[in-house]
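Example A, followed by Example B.
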Amino acid sequence: MNTTLSTAPGRHDHPPHESEQYQPNLPRRVSPLDRLALHVGVALIKWGRRPKPVESRERRANRVELELARLARESSTERSIRLSTPVR
């Protein structure tokens, strides 16, 4: 590693300078709208992180096989109906 970092002390302005209007002894009030926004945000995060059921590979394979079997039955039924109806 050939990078050399400076050892000179840097500026430390954090936190920014306080103004005369700031009064540290008074409690800060949170508006009802801010409180509602916080609750909605937390609810959305919880909803987004909810556990989703994971379908197993075997269950997916069974579902596909059942769908193919249903399609085969429907086509077989349709074919038998077309063959059994009289020609016009």
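Example B, a separate protein, is given below in the same form.
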Amino acid sequence: MTVNVGMLDRIARVVVGIALIAFALGYIAPGTSWSWVGWIGVVPILTAIFSTCPAYSLLGISTK
């Protein structure tokens, strides 16, 4: 796997991922029926941990 995610991009992905998971757990807008969408927040956190983004690879983008 080629590293293609820079430090600022990684920080942004972690922040967005945590916010989405907080939404899924009901800390943000509790009682909505769309809380399952928040579990998508796992994806940006994983891409930040591994410093690689499959979408960036397909598009030939690198923020590193």
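On Example B: The chain is about 50% helix and 0% strand.
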